[in-house]
Amino acid sequence: MAKQSILGRISQLLRANINALLDQAEDPQMMLDQLVRDYTNSIAEAESAVAQTIGNLRLMEQDHAEDVEAAADWGRKALAASAKGDELRAAGKSEDADKFDKLAKMAIGKQITAENEAKSAEPTIAAQNDVVDKLKNGLEGMRGKLGELTSKRDELVARAKTAQAQNQVADSLQSIDVMDPTSELGRFEEKVRREEALVAGKQEIAASTLDSQFETLEELDKATEVDARLAELKAGGTQAITSGS
């Protein structure tokens, strides 16, 4: 993944308006779960790319340090060769002195090459350091966004569960209102009262029948007495009527 695409991806994710995305989502929780996965994967990819970028930068810095050290080393060699040439020339050994001056020139050439390489790498190193700083800041921002996403998702899940529980309670209350158990008891009580009234009615009818039976019995007794007196009258004449026996 190129550095520019990494920065672009990080910038896109950091600019994401979570609330606006949730407002447009048909299933906010599902979208948050997906966003958490996307951010987690993007962070992992960005971390790998940033690590590689930092690794390349450290190699460039190491090469730059080596070029700087090489330039200094060739400078010391050039100085030593020049000093030796001057010493030999002072001793009248011009031919040998020329050899050391030649060596000094060669060392100076190497020194210049190393210095140029070091200088040419410095703008790139500076740019890479800037990129790495942006990548690190972007990663921190993405981690912050991931924490925000996770928090919002957990909050939404908790709210959804609470709403579901409240909805279940409301449905239960509504069903209780529709099928009021107290009204069922009232209807049962009324049924019991009707049965009690029926029993009372039957008992009253039975009592009435019994009374009529006794009345009939009394009527029979009276008729029997009348017949007895008639027979006695026939047998005893007027004495039976007056005696009362």
Commentary on this structure:
By secondary structure, the protein is an all-alpha fold. It has 2 domains: 3-179, Helix Hairpins, CATH 1.10.287; 192-243. The chain is 94% helix and 0% strand. It has helices at residues 3-15, 18-24, 28-90, 94-178, 181-236, 238-243. The longest helix is centred in the middle third of the chain and has 85 residues, at 94-178. The relative contact order is 0.08. The model has no long low-confidence stretch (mean pLDDT 78).
Brief rundown of the structure:
Helices cover 94% and strands 0% of the residues.
What would the keywords be for this entry?
245 residues, Helix Hairpins, 0% strand
List the helices and strands and how they pair.
Blueprint: H1 3-15, H2 18-24, H3 28-90, H4 94-178, H5 181-236, H6 238-243
Overall number of strands: 0
What are the low-pLDDT stretches, counting only 5+ consecutive residues below 50?
A: none
Please state the CA-atom Rg, rounded to the nearest Å: 60 Å
Structural class: mainly alpha
SSE string: HHHHHH
